[in-house]
Design a protein that fits this description.
binds zinc ion, mainly alpha, two-stranded antiparallel sheet, 15 helices
């Protein structure tokens, strides 16, 4: 049973951020694994956690999946502007990081396609097993050691049933400050990779290292189009007008807010409706329809995505959407309504089925 705790107060939230800052400034980093682990815990908190302030169990398997996501594109050869050669960037002060080597091998076997690697069950399971082992041997129990001192503020350093338990308030803070934490960690990761002597010949006058390291792998959205067209009966999700042309696949929760391509987050819309919405969250009426669709047809939609090999996880989609609207509500951000432009978010959104977590 997760412990029932109130959400952390402002003072506790500040303390959490200061501890995280200390960890990044003073923790010993010999590889980039610790950065990946921090990002994984933050992402998993968004996808699986809630705002109750409760503790949260995180399986090593879920962390391993995130590691593969992050390192997949980083295991490609890199050649900075004006650099003399291309090679895979070093991620470790000693020899190349084991996870990078394991992914490199699978990458070449699957011609660089992450979905293909995922669909090959045996390959995928053996890769995850390797990554899990490395996570347990390396960053997991060392992350919170600073100068020989244990600063166990994220989780207790014990693995039970192949999982760790985030302390009360941790998932809350990782969700609330997701963007800030992601920026801090990515910045430190880029500086680490830039600083390694072995990487110097590859960097050249690199300016886009951040984009190379973290520009996520995007799925081929055209695969989702016929599925959505069918479920929406040929109509635009936002205005319900007939889609004369093929329509555009739109991230309901914008990619810029949370870059993950999970099936249930997609809707099909007119190019004009999609362009008007831009990178904003959609207003209450649209969210209402999105919730209804996934309550009523989420399962069938998932089965249809399976048939075309498109990744989905309805539970995670509920969580990510409720997190995104919670962030917007907390920050007082306006949302987009068709015909109405920018409007404030109707507080009734919290009562929608699927948003009550
Ligand atoms: Zn439309």
């Amino acid at each position: 049973m997760p412990s029932r705790m109130p959400a952390p107060c402002s003072d506790e939230q500040v303390k959490f951020l200061l501890q995280l800052q200390t960890l990044l400034a003073q923790g010993g980093f010999v590889a980039t694994y610790k950065f990946a682990l921090l990002l994984a815990l933050a992402d998993i908190s968004v996808e699986k956690g809630d705002d109750s302030g409760a503790s949260m169990r995180v399986s090593i398997e879920a962390i391993a999946e995130k590691f593969v996501d992050y390192y997949w594109r980083q295991a490609m050869p890199y050649q900075g502007l004006g650099a003399k050669k291309a090679a895979v960037l070093r991620q470790n002060t000693d020899r190349q990081a084991a996870i990078i080597r394991a992914i490199e091998e699978i990458r070449s076997r699957c011609e660089g396609s992450l979905p293909r690697a995922r669909n090959d069950r045996r390959t995928w399971q053996s890769l995850l097993a390797k990554v899990k082992r490395t996570i347990k041997e390396q960053p997991l129990l060392k992350l919170q050691t600073i100068g020989g001192r244990q600063l166990e503020f994220l989780y207790a350093n014990t693995v039970v049933a192949d999982a760790i338990e985030l302390k009360p308030g941790v998932a809350f803070c990782l969700r609330r400050y997701h963007e800030l934490i992601q920026d801090l960690v990515r910045g430190a990761w880029v500086r680490f990779v830039r600083g390694l002597r072995e990487n110097q010949p590859l960097l050249g006058q690199t300016v886009d290292l951040d984009e190379f390291l973290f520009g996520s792998e995007r799925a081929d959205l055209s695969v989702a189009r016929p599925v959505l067209l069918d479920f929406q009966e040929g109509r635009c999700f936002y205005c319900e007008g007939v889609l004369q042309s093929r329509g555009e696949v739109d991230h309901f929760v914008p990619w810029s807010l949370y870059p993950v391509d999970l099936g249930h987050n997609f809707v099909l819309a007119h190019a004009s409706c999609n362009a008007a919405k831009k990178d904003r969250l959609a207003a209450y009426e649209h969210l209402h329809r999105w919730c209804d669709r996934n309550v009523e047809q989420g399962k069938e939609l998932g089965a249809a995505f399976d048939e075309v090999g498109f990744l989905h996880d309805l539970q995670a989609s509920w969580r990510v959407t409720s997190w995104a609207y919670g962030q917007a509500a907390a920050a007082g951000v306006h949302v987009w309504a068709r015909g109405g432009g920018s409007v404030s978010l109707d507080p009734r959104w919290r009562g929608l089925q699927g948003m009550r977590l």
